[in-house]
């Protein structure tokens, strides 16, 4: 896991410390809520200026612009408001998504990190809209998610990217230990088989193939890879972004889809009994990436909110009998 082990000890405390931590988290949540309510009326103005400023930039000003916006919490909060509130979507959703894609394609690290912190919110918005039959309304979201995915699965030379790493073993040197001395070891058949097996303990992530279009067969695979990408950089994300992960987890694992979503009839023969209410389709790999993100959030300042999200993910995994997910939780 990517969460810092040093922070785990902060949560193994007595009842008084637990109450104090819970109070601090509540105050933090209230602070963000107050700031959020205060900034909602200005969100459209802030985002409109942000879009206009980027369009008027010269190439020499790109780096300084990226250094400014990556630390602008007011702008980050305003963009989250635009994405989370439907009343802004008609005017701002498409230009904001175009801006995200331009940031990612620029290969400027700060601009990529700025766009990357909105990936969970974009995924939640996209999956919810697709499940309700409103895919056309979020076509721009689908395009930017597809663009980020395709940019990440290839390296600078245009080949499929692949990440490989070796699991540390006692028979191999690492920064923590020296390998065991073979001169004083009896090379029995068991010892030889152990050493031979250890040669193959390499984990490969990827390569992933590029995708021309997101459809039902590859949708959750693309979302899983995007969440994995987010998790690799989660420690650098803003508090707003980490809170959005919990919101997306609650939305994806608990949101119900009504019997008449998409404007369709509830049955083929005008049956007065509606169809059973369904949930947003999810897969085990996608849930595992969500759990990874929630664990980091839990042990880095948002314990109670993260614990609630983890419980909702656990309930969803129980309902669908996802054993690999339940083992992690």
From TrEMBL:
GO BP, one annotated term: phosphatidylinositol phosphate biosynthetic process
GO CC list: cytosol; plasma membrane
Record keyword Lipid metabolism present: no
Location in the cell: Cell membrane; Cytoplasm, Cytosol
Coiled coil residues, start to end: none
Keyword annotations from UniProtKB, A to Z: Cell membrane, Cytoplasm, Membrane
Principal place of residence: membrane
Pfam families attached to this UniProt entry: Hyccin
Entry's family note: Belongs to the Hyccin family.
UniProt-recorded name of the protein: Hyccin
């Amino acid at each position: 896991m990517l969460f810092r082990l040093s922070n785990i000890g902060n949560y193994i405390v007595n009842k008084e410390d637990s109450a104090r931590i819970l109070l601090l988290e509540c105050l933090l949540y209230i602070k963000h809520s107050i700031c959020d309510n205060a900034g909602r009326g200005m969100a459209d103005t802030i985002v409109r200026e942000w879009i206009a400023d980027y369009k008027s930039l010269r190439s020499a000003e790109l780096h300084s612009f990226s250094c400014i916006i990556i630390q602008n919490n007011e702008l980050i909060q305003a963009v989250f408001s635009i994405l989370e509130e439907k009343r802004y979507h008609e005017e701002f959703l498409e230009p904001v998504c175009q801006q995200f894609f331009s940031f990612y394609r620029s290969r400027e690290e700060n601009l990529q990190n700025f766009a990357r912190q909105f990936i969970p919110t974009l995924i939640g918005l996209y999956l919810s809209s697709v499940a309700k039959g409103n895919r056309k309304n979020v076509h721009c979201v689908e395009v930017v998610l597809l663009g980020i995915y395709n940019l990440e699965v290839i390296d600078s030379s245009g080949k499929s990217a692949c990440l490989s790493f070796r699991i540390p073993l006692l028979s191999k040197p690492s920064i923590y230990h020296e390998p065991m001395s073979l001169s004083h070891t009896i090379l029995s058949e068991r010892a030889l088989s152990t050493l031979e097996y250890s040669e193959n303990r390499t984990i490969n992530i990827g390569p992933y193939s590029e995708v021309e279009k997101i459809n039902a067969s590859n949708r959750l695979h693309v979302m899983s890879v995007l969440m994995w990408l987010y998790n690799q950089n989660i420690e650098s994300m803003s508090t707003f972004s980490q809170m959005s992960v919990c919101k997306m987890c609650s939305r994806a694992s608990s949101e119900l889809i009504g019997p008449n979503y998409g404007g369709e009839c509830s049955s083929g023969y005008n049956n007065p009994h509606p169809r059973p209410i369904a949930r947003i389709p999810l897969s085990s790999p996608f849930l595992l990436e969500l759990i990874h993100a929630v664990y980091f959030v839990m042990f880095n300042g948002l314990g109670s909110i993260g614990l609630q999200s983890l419980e909702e993910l656990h309930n969803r995994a129980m309902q669908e009998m996802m054993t690999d997910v339940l083992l992690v939780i």
